[in-house]
Amino acid sequence: MCAVQKWGREAGSGRRTRAPSLLCLRHLHANISCSGWGNGYADIVKENKLFESYYKELGLVPEGEFEQFMDAMREPLPATIRITGYKSHAKEILHCLKEKYFKDIQELEIDGQKIEAPQALSWYPDEQAWHTNMSRKIIRKSPLLEKFHQFLVSETESGNISRQEAVSMLPPLLLKIEPHHKILDMCAAPGSKTAQLIEMLHADMDVPFPEGFVIANDVDNKRCYLLVHQAKRLNSPCIMVVNHDASCIPTLHINSGGKRDVLFYDRILCDVPCSGDGTLRKNIDVWKKWTTSNSLHLHGLQLRIAVRGVEQLAVGGRMVYSTCSLNPIEDEAVIAALLEKSEGALELADSSADLPGLKWMPGVSSWKLMTKEGMWYSDWSEVPSSRQTQIRPTMFPPTDSEKLASMHLERCMRILPHHQNTGGFFVAVLVKKAPMPWNKRFPKTGGSPAASLPTDAPHLAESVEGEGGGPERKLGGEAEEEEAFKGASLAQETAAKQDGVCGPPPLKKMKLFGYKEDPFVFLTEDDPVFTTIQSFYDLSPDFPKLNVLTRTHEGKKRHLYMVSKELRNMLLNNSERMKVINTGVKVWSRNSDGEEFGCAFRLAQEGIYTLQPYIRSRIITVSVEDIKVLLTQENPFLSKLQDHAHAQAKKLGSLLGDLSEPQCSIQLCGWRGKTSIRAFVPRNERFHYLRMLGVEVFKDKQGQKPSDGEKEGKEGEEAEEGTTSPGFPVYLTEGFPPRDGLL
């Protein structure tokens, strides 16, 4: 991802912006020196005396290491890639990287300098994450590195590889996701962590619809579409993108056993907006913009978001709080305030053994606060009244030493850049032991403002207007908390004003910004669409028809999408209280030529792994050579297929090509015309499947095919005709031999 965002999160400093963020997947190494960005960044000096004096005084860096810390901050950040862990092709991608590209790079010299091969991140499971110091300047000098770069770009766009900063991978790992978990990502854009959560949810590829789901939220409407772009690469029916202010994200309802219950999440990722001083290595404009005021301005918002997160967390659930800032005001101060207000309902989990190989510093229990003018304060009592609107009591450590010790702030984890050549980061894992005390304190009252609202009123309420029922509706703490939610809003607001800290935010009317999205309309079981689809594809009896939706109330349905039953439940029960940007995976698309075959809908490649377990006809098995023909030629004649596949395809319209191999399976969607056959597979997925079969696809710098002399000079490469796209010749290589089996 190109680090072009101004004050964005993850690709920026952490502060939010209304300007659209830029997503660029065409750079292997976006973290380059100042000169690489042109005149706009040429004069930036990587110095900030206030930053140095502040962190020296705080003592967060071990003694004797401060110079190493600052030197690391001035160095470009290594590029990091992560192989998509849940896809069945992950092992093949890793095999390709290690045996072809990495092995060749180890023996490569450019301008007399030996190139350092990418290294696996020691703490990331199964060698699924790698980092490299190669710059774009180096990549341009070597055709081999250029091929490697194009491989990464292509596989990133097809969802098999993600460009993601190393420390950004930590929060999803610490959440310990299981396929049945209900997950909320509160500040999700641009979506690299969300993608990780989806991957973990689909750990078992044999289950098309995991019981769990991911709700990915962001306050910025435009950045939500970056989030959609990331999520769509993974083709999951279990992801929903919503657009709300995380500090007052609405409480959602679900139908459980015929009763309306409040939704509590098993896992919550609370990666809050921050000042981003841990990103100095990739966001060099932070060097001149950093002041201590940034943290003071953001602390309150961070605390409100964290409070809203733990309110929606199920008892026994885990919430990970994280920032790309090293400042205790944004880190330990928020955690300490949260723990103090929870009165024992929350505790910090000890995650020291969860990621062996990761180097981190324990959280601190003592810190000071400095203004941008250089004034230091160690305690709230020292703050003059003129400053007390900007500086708040929750920014300081608790004064009760016994209470402070019981918080175990040392269980927080701070990642310093010079320890493992990463960015700076902070992460803390919270476990919810009981309902939040302000929910227990205020019983259900019939006269509260919340109680007088209709049940379908659109608003972002902390209290939940229920439909009656006693504690038996839920077990243990969740029942108590659900009942306590109801009617508590006014009392919460009063309590918050009294102590200056954060109870839940007051009742607000929901405001919708940005584009008006098309509706999500679920089909009924007797919808006429299913009549032909059912017989045409011979869908199995357990096919979940009720999970199919379209995006229009009127006219012809152009596309059909599928979601899991849990997301269907949420959509039907919360349509008026949340703004949904996107959900569902496309499974069928209308094809005007299909009616002559008996069905107007063809299969969509995006949803084939969701649909495949339910389809019992129109499946053909084809050879590896057939697949090469289908993927390298746009509309090959049927006669180009081998006899077995040719005979099967002649009888079908929309079809599914199937490859079952020991290492991985491939399913391709296609359509047979009168004399030809076409694979409806996006370009980058074509490239991916061809690589899995031993065919290398690359583009030379001029976008033209190499000359005959160049072809002859490529040892082990044989040109193969194709029409994949102009300027993208296809080569058979020896680097990744095809496996035996049928496609």
What does this structure look like?
- The chain is of the alpha+beta class.
- It contains 25 helices and 34 strands.
- The strands form nine sheets. Strands 7, 8, 9, 12, 13, 14, 15, 18, 19 and 25 form a ten-stranded mixed sheet that branches. Strands 22-23-24-26-27 form a five-stranded antiparallel sheet. The chain has a four-stranded antiparallel sheet with strand order 4-5-1-6.
- A hairpin with a 2-residue loop joins β10 (253-256) and β11.
- α11 (293-311) runs parallel beside α12.
- The longest helix is centred in the middle third of the chain and has 19 residues, at 293-311.
- The radius of gyration is 28 Å and the shape is globular.
- It starts with 38 loop residues before the first helix and ends in an 11-residue tail after the last strand.
Q: Indicate the overall shape.
A: globular
Low-confidence stretches: 1-41, 443-480, 483-510, 701-743
Kindly report the average pLDDT value: 78
The major β-sheet equals:
10 strands, mixed
Number of helices: 25
Radius of gyration based on Cα positions: 28 Å
β-strand percent reads 15-25%
Number of strands: 34
- Terminal-residue CA separation: 34 Å
Could you estimate the helical fraction of the residues in percent?
Answer: 25-40%
Structural class: alpha+beta
